[in-house]
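Quick one - first record:
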Amino acid sequence: MSDIIQHAKRLLEGITPAPWKVYAWERHPDSDVYVMNEDGEMVTDEGWIHPADGHLIAAAPELATALAQETYEYRYERKLIYQTNEWQPMAEAKWYPTPELAESAASRAPNSLPVRLTRRRVSQPEVME
């Protein structure tokens, strides 16, 4: 199983300092663009690139940083083989910060059905004003 959070952390190691900005040729704003950081360092080695690619590249540090700050939560699910054959959360349907805590909660619930450990990514809380 791929760990996208760890992958994002590795991708951020040694990058050109952000933020990155997209620049276009003033006479032809719809033409190809290039990406530079605040210090005027080129981020795109190839020089001029398609505008959509440039905007994605410029957003990459912020997006990867947000992903790298996420964590995982875990819970066990059981398969309802005698009813709908679907997976359903075990115990209180609560998510736990570690697989071990999820396993401990699942072990306290009586069960004779197939089980699986699941995880989800959780981002940092945002203040809504």
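second record:
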Amino acid sequence: MDTSESCLDDTMLSTASNSFYTSGTFWAALAVFVTALVGAASVWATLRVSNPRRRLTYSIEDTRLLRPHSLGHDLTVHLDGSVLPDPRILRVELRNLGRRDIASAAFDQGLPLKVAVNVPIMESLGVEAQHTVAQPLPAVVRESEIQIGPGRIGQRSRLTYLFLVDGEPSCTWQHSLIDVKVAEAAELDNEPWAVRVIAFTAATSILALIITLMDIFR
């Protein structure tokens, strides 16, 4: 290929590139794309505000009060004159991660939250409430089962119930909440971060695509 042909090709490529940027069709298409993207984001934000999800997490942990030792004598815990062979503190925590209260009506047929621990529950040690002005849900012990509620759970609130049990608990959780996503704390706490990562990745990909196209036709 001689020099004149090379110059001609460069001129044609430059002309095509310039016509790309000055094309009304390109800018109209880009405007439609941006408008659609902004519209979709606005719809998503509106739905999120008008229909906030109610999300409740729970966690159940126990702590042994006595551990094996080599002091030469036995430590024991007594309750009402009886020795507890394996006393433990059971901690049941509820967190409302949503932006709205979970109303009493969300408890279908007024049924409480139930935690079966499958060991003797010796004593209820009280409840701690954080980030809420609502009264904590009442907790009732029925043999080896804890029943919590029904009642209102304030937005962003955290309720922690403490119990003295004898033995290693094996807990089973049941609930009757309507329109409330319920999950273990570790599972649900990670979900918002996953959503943010996906959204950030999608936005970055779109921006990278636009920049790449501009470089190609520059």
